[in-house]
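Handoff note, outgoing to incoming analyst
You'll be picking up this chain. Sequence as last confirmed:
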Amino acid sequence: MLNGIRSIFGFVIYPLQTIASTPSELSLWVEEEFHSHQSLIDENETYRTENLLLKAQLQKFTSLQAENIRLRSLLKSSRKLSDQILIAETITVDLDPYKRQIVINKGQRSGIYAGQPILDAYGIMGQIIHPGGPSSTAILITDPSHAIPVQNNRNGLRTVLYGTGSANLLEVQNLPNNADIEVGDLLITSGLGGRFPEGYPVAVVKKIKRDPGQPFAQIIAEASAHLEQSREVLLVMNSDRKIPKNDAQEHTQTQNNTNEAEQ
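Most recent structure output, in case you need it:
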């Protein structure tokens, strides 16, 4: 009899116990779910941060790879030159719209001098105008105040290229309409004036306009050098000048590193 009453009582009280315990269990379940969700958020944030850092590192690796390719091109070009050369890096670009000048990280301490030619892997860029101690200012061939003696690589015709102030365009002035010059002709340094050594690429003729009513043809050429892109430059040393020992060692080490990378 007593057992029967207990069974009936248990049967009646069980739903009440279940209902009474539900809020507590629900609370624990919600708390566990909240902690799990928060853990997922924290973990996701950690992965997002790591992904951002990895992307940043990848950008740096891409930049280093591009720099390595540029240095290879420079050093391949330097091997073709009989002149002494020194590698420098562009650190500042003049933002004056009427000037085309850059600042490089080599100066008089490295043997840099006024009038020294600079070039990249593709052609003449300009010349040094203000050598400082640790750095120097160079004027680009497209500067409106710059002129460079050139000759047509096809037939030896001599003329002068003047800067236009444009990013990469130059012009030939005072060349008669009947002059033997054509679109696509490569203009190289003539060596006249003693400033630029003979035989370096300067520009390629892009446009010629011959007006019968005018005595001279209008000739536009595009610079061979990558004036707006090149970060590293070559400086050509005169035969009577020597690269300082420290810079010579640096240049030799750069060549060795590049040779190892190529292998």
